[in-house]
């Protein structure tokens, strides 16, 4: 099969990879219908995360089940399914508590490489959600978003306790931040402040329900959020970047007693202990347990209640994956879908 392999910084190749097969009785093998490039893939593409050996890439996927192991019960050959970036059993205590991305049996899907024609999914019954019906092209994009960026933005909004009567600020205007805006509004937030300096992303944030746009960053951004919230700061802040500046901007934009939901993959972030102590804010985040939200998100997408697929502003065939990475790296595209 054809699949994306990252050989080093800025060196994306589409090459022959071995066809995956059922290895464990709980596995399924999918023929993928759509995949995409993640903002988090850029950490290794840019060389921020070292690439020590040629690595298969991709952890977002919608596909049709082609084979199942003997112990798979809930998904069948021919089903259209969505999963997320960790395979999980969905039965252990951690999963049952809603933290499937930290399942005691978790398997990172990125290591298996979902930017490929086929994908082996471990723990298929726990990981995959069956899509009812036949999605339209827009719904397919929404399902692909649900696989990671929508699920992650949704978790961030839940972790930040977005809800009725709340003002939510969102740090980061990538796909996750933008979908965090959508999630915050769906969860009932009254006011959503999107922090973005890019006109196209501001427009999408507005479409997803942002009520205010703040273009300043760092301390100036914090000052603007405080100005908009009577000097107090937001009740809820989503951090969807993963840098020191973004994390501190998020904490400082939150009012005492408020909540920060952080989902940007942390790179070199160090939080000063005394400042955190004095802030009185709640911090909750980490790798989003997308599986917790996936059934609801699939349902919202298939009923056209949300248009999460609008984050995909470029679609390319798998063979042109290198262009997809470059477009996202250079911020010419917010999110690129790969088709087969
Ligand atoms: Zn589990």
Measured between the Cα atoms of the first and last residue, the distance is 11 Å
Overall number of strands: 18
Q: Strand fraction band?
A: 25-35%
Helix proportion range: 25-40%
Give the number of helices: 12
Q: Give the radius of gyration.
A: 19 Å
What does this structure look like?
With 340 residues, this protein is of the alpha/beta class. It is 31% helix and 25% strand. It contains 12 helices and 18 strands. The chain has helices at residues 41-45, 93-96, 124-127, 137-147, 149-159, 175-186, 199-207, 218-228, 244-253, 273-279, 290-302, 321-329, and strands at residues 2-8, 11-16, 28-36, 55-56, 61-68, 80-83, 86-87, 107-108, 118-121, 129-130, 167-171, 191-195, 212-214, 234-239, 254-262, 282-285, 314-317, 336-339. Helix 9 (244-253) links the parallel strand 14 (234-239) and strand 15 (254-262). The longest helix has 13 residues, at 290-302. The radius of gyration is 19 Å and the shape is globular. The protein binds zinc ion (ZN). Zinc ion binds at residues 88-89, 91-92, 94-95, 103-105.
Task: Give a short overview.
31% of the residues lie in helices and 25% in strands. The chain is built from twelve helices and 18 strands.
């Amino acid at each position: 099969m054809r699949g994306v392999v990252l050989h080093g910084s800025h060196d994306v190749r589409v090459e022959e990879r071995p066809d995956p097969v059922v290895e464990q009785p709980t596995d399924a093998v999918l023929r993928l219908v759509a995949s995409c490039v993640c903002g988090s893939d850029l950490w290794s593409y840019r060389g921020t995360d070292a690439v020590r050996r040629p690595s298969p890439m991709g952890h977002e996927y919608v596909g049709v089940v082609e084979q199942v192991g003997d112990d798979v019960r809930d998904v069948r050959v021919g089903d259209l399914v969505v999963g997320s970036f960790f395979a999980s059993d969905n039965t252990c205590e951690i999963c049952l508590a809603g933290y499937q991305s930290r399942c005691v049996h978790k398997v990172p899907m990125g290591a298996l490489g979902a930017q490929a024609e086929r994908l082996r999914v471990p723990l298929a019954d726990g990981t995959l959600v069956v899509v009812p019906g036949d999605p339209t092209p827009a719904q397919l994009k929404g399902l692909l978003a649900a696989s990671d960026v929508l699920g992650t933005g949704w978790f961030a909004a839940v972790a930040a306790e977005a809800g009725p009567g709340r003002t939510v600020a969102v740090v980061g205007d990538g796909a996750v931040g933008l979908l965090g805006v959508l999630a915050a509004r769906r969860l009932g937030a009254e006011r959503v402040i999107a922090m973005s300096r890019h006109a196209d992303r501001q427009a999408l944030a507005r479409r997803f329900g942002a009520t205010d746009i703040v273009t300043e960053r760092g301390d100036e951004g914090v000052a603007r959020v405080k100005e908009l919230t009577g000097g107090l700061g937001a009740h809820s802040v989503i951090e969807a970047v993963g840098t020191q500046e973004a994390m501190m901007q998020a904490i400082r934009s939150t009012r005492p007693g408020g909540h920060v939901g952080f989902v940007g993959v942390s790179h070199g972030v160090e939080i000063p202990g005394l400042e955190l102590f004095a802030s009185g804010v709640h911090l909750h985040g980490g790798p989003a347990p997308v599986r917790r939200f996936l059934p609801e998100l699939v349902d919202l997408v298939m009923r056209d209640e949300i248009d999460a697929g609008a984050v995909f502003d470029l679609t390319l065939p798998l063979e042109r994956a290198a262009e997809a990475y470059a477009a996202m790296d250079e911020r010419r595209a917010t999110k690129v879908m790969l088709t087969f």
